[in-house]
Design a protein that fits this description.
Layout (H helix, E strand, L loop, with lengths): L15 H8 L15 H11 L5 E6 L2 E5 H11 L4 E6 L2 E9 L3 H10 L4 E6 L3 H6 L8 E7 L18 E8 L5 E9 L4 E7 L1 H11 L3 E5 L6 H9 L4 E4 L6 H12 L12 H18 L10 E2 L7 E2 L1 H7 L13 H5 L5 H12 L5 H16 L1 H12 L4 H9 L5 H22 L6 H11 L3 H10 L20 H28 L5 E5 L3 E7 H7 L9 E5 L3 E5 L1 H33 L2 H27 L5 E3 L4 E6 L2 H9 L7 E4 L10 E5 L6 H17 L7 E5 L3 E5 L12 H15 L5 E5 L7 H19 L2 E6 L14 E11 L2 E10 L7 H7 L4 H16 L1 H12 L17 H10 L2 H5 L8 H17 L7 H18 L1
Parallel strand pairs: 1-5, 7-10, 9-12, 10-11, 13-23, 18-22, 21-25, 21-26, 23-24, 24-25
Antiparallel strand pairs: 1-2, 2-4, 3-4, 5-6, 7-8, 8-9, 14-15, 15-17, 16-17, 19-20, 19-22, 26-27
The chain binds adenosine-5'-triphosphate.
Pfam family, one: MutS_V
Family: Belongs to the DNA mismatch repair MutS family.
GO molecular function: ATP binding; ATP-dependent DNA damage sensor activity; damaged DNA binding; mismatched DNA binding
Amino acid sequence: MRKILRPMPPAAKAGASDDRASEDGTRAGTADPAAKISPMIAQYLDIKAAHQDALLFYRMGDFYELFFEDAETAAQALGIVLTRRGKHAGQDIPMCGVPVERSEDYLHRLIGLGHRVAVCEQIEDPAEARKRGAKSVVRREVKRLVTPGTITEEHLLDPSRANCLLAITAVAQPAGEIRYGLAAVDISTGAFAVCETSDAFLESEIARIDPAEIVVPEALLNLPSLTRLAKEDKRPLTPLGGDAGAAASAERRIKAFFGLATLDSLGALSGAESAAAAAAIFYIERTQLGARPALSLPSRNGRSDHMDIDAATRANLELTRTLAGAREGSLIGAIDRTVTPAGGRLFVERLSAPLMSPDRIARRLDAVAFFVGDPSLRKELRARLKAAPDLARALSRLSLGRGGPRDLAALRDGIEAAQAVAALFAEASQPPEELAAAAGSAAALESSLAARLRAALADSLPLNRRDGGFVRSGHDDALDEQRALRDESRRVIAALQARYCEDLETRQLKLKHNHFLGYFIEVPQAQGEKLLRPPHDSLFTHRQTMADAMRFSTRELAELEVRISSAADEALAREQAVFDELATLVLAHEAAIKRAADALAVFDVAAALADLAAGCGWTRPEVDHSLAFKIESGRHPVVEAALRESGQPFVGNDCDLSGGAGKAGRIAVLTGPNMAGKSTYLRQNALIAVLAQTGSFVPAAKAHIGIVDQLFSRVGAADDLARGRSTFMVEMVETAAILNQAKERSLVILDEIGRGTATFDGLSIAFAVIEHLHAKNRARAIFATHFHELTQLAKRLDRIDNLTVRVTDWNGEVVFLHEIVAGAADRSYGIQVAKLAGLPASVVARAKTLLADFEAADRLAQTERLVADLPLFTVAAPSASSPPGAPEADKIFADKFPPETLADQTLANQSLADQSFADLALRKAIDALDPDSLSPRQAMAALYELKQLRRGGA
Ligand SMILES: Nc1ncnc2c1ncn2[C@@H]1O[C@H](COP(=O)(O)OP(=O)(O)OP(=O)(O)O)[C@@H](O)[C@H]1O
């Protein structure tokens, strides 16, 4: 529904709205198309020219107005009425507007949609402008440039997520390779991290940072991964002009911003990293219009420091949001028990970038273990943390000059919470390294700071500093004096009203105030007539006649007004000075406060993970440099939580993909009926790896994980119609990425590869994918499939294990046990599941008959032919010329099929993989014959043996 937001103000309305009328010489219907541009429109066009890439909120009295294309864009985005105001170049000027007091809501919505907004304020009193002539325009200036990646306002930000601006630059290496520099800055907290990456990992790094806005030099605008992100993920992408990304000026810009003589203290930033950091600074300076946010020095985040999780895997595993974009239902939604916004943000950051160093992981796990072992300390700590407001964001607003009294109060309460936490830890015996360091940072805060703030701030605080009334009385003598004068004057007004009432013998006289008249006396019409006549007319001066009242003033009232307003103004000015003093005091401790804020977040995450581990029976994983992947009784945290709510148990399952000494890890081929729990099993093992390397306990009885450097998944079957890709195309693109990139240390989970196309195409692709994974990628992997034929691969590829999910029949109904065991599924139970889903009985019965026919005849035969034709070991073969009987194949064949078993084996009902082995057996038997050395009897026996082999393979 479209809402009408801005009725045109009534002509008689006094004050600010009148300025609109006097300024605007092009009111609707009055302008001559050929007339000159009105001064106001000329001013508007001037300001707009400097802010072409933003919607211009142009302040007119109590509204922000938008004109021309901006009006059309905003009206459509906000669902507000588009109207017209005068003409420009013979055309109507489209216009819409939002009231100032509700503008933040509209800003929020526009920013959420990826727009940038330039907020242009009136910077002088309209009365001042009028003094320059009736047609003069109020001076205006853009005071704020609001963009998705640079917002700091509490109500515009999600407390549980970082709000990152990401600058990307490219630097060509001497060898021709392009290296990308990435600088991620969260102005709302001051966090500033840089890293460098190659083209192959650019997208996964962007997915990890999950930026609210990306800025790039114009030359990079057409980079395919960026255009895709901007178009399909709707990430705001802002081009930077000038030399923003130039390596040459980068160092100078960083030094100037941080006031550094040299960049040595930042460690060795690469050329790409410093170019990106400088580009981010350039954009921040441009948008903050002179205000300097309290940014930390850029810290390097080596790409090899964290597990690489590509964008598709991140989305598929629903780590921080579901495929539909919601937090609820994601991993973080199910397991986040942090109690502070900063703790929540740190947890998201850690979960998005699992570590690669067993030592660093162990340090985090030590902190969690410490709190698991001390439940009462944990409870006490969490209670104190709950009282801690968002220190980092309040500090950032103060540093940008956008803070309010409540930000000072947040600082006060946050510092006190940090001190309380530090005091709690002073008594803790032998806290682990991570917590001891955090306690040190919390304790290092200047204790007098909170005391100063407590003494200065009133108990109840307004949102905006300009409202005043936030300084405690008794704190500042000068302020108290002004306030007394102001309040005294108000009492005098009340006394004056009483006196006039008495003198005129009426109770209907009121002393009122508005912006236009200031203080005035209002009486009903009949009373007013009296005041216009002697003797009253010598005292009362007529000001205005209303429909049913008249307004007057007196000399006494005018004098009083001057006294009152100057006392109020002076009190307010004094309060602003107190605010500035307090803000300066706080900012002098900026670095220490930031460290303490980070420390509180570290405490929060460790205690929250401990709470989770203790409450849900999670255990400490063992993480090292091996290629182990051994999980005992692992669970899926999100599915388990959902089942718990409906009172059902989750069945824990083991998983062992460990590589032996000097050997790559194993590949599990998982078959089982629909709805048995295959996808759950796949995902839970990937999530356990992520959680373990995040430094969390894991939902398993025991877990041993050798560092996973890259996590790949191909799960889910979402069409990606927005990108113009079919389900199958998406599946193949993601599978290709995995096969091209996965290595021995990777973990790969693949769900039903090949199901999106014709059966035999799909089966062939699935076969080839597993062979490639086994021979080339050599990664630890789980491959869930409905192609039971794939289980035959375990017979000839040494690192493949078959797993299946147990089900049982009960009175003809399928019962899922959700238990993963070694072996292959005997059948699919698809029809039973379809029956459970409520397919009509006639359809189920018909499907059963057809299945019996298909199983008996055609499909099996076709399958057998297909696999008999498949070139075996094409991936594993040392060279393309190696024949099927090459040494590796021979060895596997001999292990799997000793000659004595081949003769009497009935192969007729075996699957196609067995079939090819039987053919191989026949050929080997013929090759082994030496007719010249056989007696007639031996020749006869050999002939029978060959017949037998042939019969088995037919
Ligand atoms: N280990 C488990 N313990 C208890 N319930 C489970 C378990 N695993 C899965 N389930 C339940 O079974 C449902 C189906 O699981 P899942 O989607 O993993 O099956 P699937 O085998 O992948 O099915 P399909 O082949 O049809 O995709 C889950 O939503 C969950 O309710």
